[in-house]
Amino acid sequence: MADLEQISEMMQKGKAKEVKELCQEALDAGISAQTILDDALLAAMNIVGIKFKNNQVFVPEVLIAARAMNAGLEILKSELEAGESEVKGKVVLGTVKGDLHDIGKNLVKIMLEGKGLEVIDLGTDVSPEQYVEAAKTNNANIIAVSALLTTTMTQMENVVKAAEDAGIRDKITIMIGGAPVTQSFCDSIGADIYTPDASTAADKAMEVCL
Ligand code: B1M
């Protein structure tokens, strides 16, 4: 019998194989992918985050929990994507230079693809020039930038500047997000759109591409 609590426990322990199997069992039992994401995977990462902050767990444990979360996301991916097939626009996505956090970015990717948007995923530790080059090469509508650290979110302003320097600022929408990012920060660096979560990011991206 699928058990969200068990998925959460396995994820906190970094048991990727078990998380995958249990996510599949939960889907087979009729639990929605969104419920599994919210009540098991994100809930578990929240607990890991609190323990990390309180020095109860350290980077290696957080890293294997993150791997287990990404393994679970792989299973939920097809269900979270709403099944759109026609490409409606192109988004260049990545986590900023100096930042290795990719779970939120991966979630944004899943939601964007679910809306029928093509995502060029540059991964993590992406320089401003890499975003701009990929946007030009792929004729993208949007550059979507994620950052999880207060020390790396400042890179977002460099992405805006790089787009200006390359002469594409008026043709590209720059979206930003990630735990430390706010609307006022977005306004202060001259980015176009801030959203607090992956699902809203996908909705806003659709508005840009329609
Ligand atoms: Co890091 N880490 N970490 N970490 N880590 C945080 C972010 C931290 C808050 C933990 C803490 O102290 N409480 C803290 C940052 C403090 C700060 O800057 N103020 C921190 C730190 C300090 C560090 C290191 C410096 C630790 C060290 O080495 N001493 C180090 C930095 C490494 C680096 O990047 N250079 C580090 C390393 C790591 C791991 C590698 C171990 C691992 C990342 C593994 C991976 O991603 N593959 C890790 C993790 C997992 C975390 C926590 C525990 C969880 C982050 C996460 O994935 N959350 C985190 C604490 C926490 O958040 N509670 C923490 C789940 C994810 C779904 O949420 O990414 O916020 P999030 O995405 C959300 C929204 O923000 C939004 O959508 C998602 C929800 O739908 N969103 C967007 C994200 N991007 C968006 C883009 C958009 C729109 C919305 O538009 C483009």
TrEMBL record:
One of its GO terms (molecular function) is methionine synthase activity. SMART domains: B12-binding_2 (SM01018). The keyword Nucleotide-binding does not apply. One of its GO terms (cellular component) is cytosol. Pfam families: B12-binding, B12-binding_2. Keywords: Cobalt, Metal-binding. The keyword Metal-binding applies. GO terms for biological process: homocysteine metabolic process; tetrahydrofolate metabolic process. Residues 1-88 form the B12-binding N-terminal domain. SUPFAM superfamilies: Cobalamin (vitamin B12)-binding domain, Methionine synthase domain. PROSITE patterns: B12_BINDING, B12_BINDING_NTER. It comes from the Bacteria. Residues 88-210 form the B12-binding domain. Belongs to the methylamine corrinoid protein family. PANTHER family: METHIONINE SYNTHASE (PTHR45833). This is Cobalamin-binding protein.
